[in-house]
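Suppose you are handed a protein chain with no further information: no name, no annotation, nothing but its sequence. What can you learn? This example shows the usual starting point.
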Amino acid sequence: MDQNVISVIMGGGRGTRLYPLTKERCKPAVPLAGKYRLVDIPISNCLNSGINRIHLLSQFNTASLHNHIQSTYQFDPFGGGYVDIMSAEQTDSGETWYQGTADAVRQNLHHFNDGKNDLFLILSGDQLYRMDFRKIIEHHNRLGSDLTIAAKAMHKSEVTGLGVMRVDDDYSIQEFVEKPTDPAVIESLIIGDKLRSTLDGNPDDVVLASMGIYVFSARVMRDALSGDETDFGKEIIPGLLGKVSLNSYIYDDYWEDIGTVAAFFDANLALTDELPPFNFFDDKAPIYTRARYLPATKVNGAEVSRTLFGGGSIISQSKVTHCVIGVRSMIGTGTELQDVVMMGADWYETDEDRQENAELQRPNFGVGKNCKINSAIIDKNARIGDDVELSPAGKPDGWSEGDLYVRDGIIMVMKNGIVPSGTKVRA
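A reasonable first move is to predict its three-dimensional structure. Written in structure tokens, the prediction is:
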């Protein structure tokens, strides 16, 4: 059967739960693991699965995303591959922005040029996982499915913000509930012994949660989007139950939905573990990103432990513990960082830049001397002066002062933010 796979990555809405990381960028463009962007994960999974027709749907703060995609994913003219960003646009048939995941795909159907045997692979742009999509596609075809939903077994206490499904032993989906809150409903969706026995460790009290990864047959996709429903999880999938063949594909490996500041922070710092839950060191399925041609990081007598460096940084005589340090980061003498995600800078400052900074009494890029910072995210191009102390201790969610913001128990320095020398934020 002649079958093409059209990959569609959902760029998400305003990303309010990730604010202020999404103040000046969309969710897929948020930096990850010192040198990547969130969008590199689904794109790399596609490329490693032999899928190179990739469409990225986004509409909020797309400038940095466009720059990253254009600088990173360049294909030769013979393979037919591309990564195409599709932002919301006014047309003769409509002038509205994307109203939801399904509406975003609907507004772009005229671009896809799909055939009757083709498949749509719908992906999220803010998750950390590694999946060979050929396996879910083979599962979809073998079962003769019209729609296959990737599912992750999770404890019943962890799924209130996700779509949850009841699945028979033949993988057919019998019920789908979006973001259930009633404990009795969640209890009714606990998976049976046969499916649970296929999971690593055979865990108890687990349900199957939707990963937001769907494989649609092209015909069913177009039929499903012929109405005015706007969201896959809330409307499209429940509306297809009992009408077409719906099946699940159980994914039993690491998967993290990076939808909140806390999830982003924890997922990054987990990469510093001796055996991290997500392995970037897999040359058989690499995660691709922009080639920057940076020099190696230089550590000048610093005490460093459990820390990941993105490259091109200069770390002076400091103490860096359990941190992720992004590209072109500068850390001054006497500074102590613990539990910090530092995103680095987009360029190196010149001697002229530093002279101008001195005249303006503005700190240079990075963290100055004799600072103490813990439980923090330092966004791109931030400038932190000398003798600064930053901690979220005692500060409520939503607390802000200048370019500082506290959310989920983490203090953040905003992108391009300035923290003057001597600033003290502590309990």
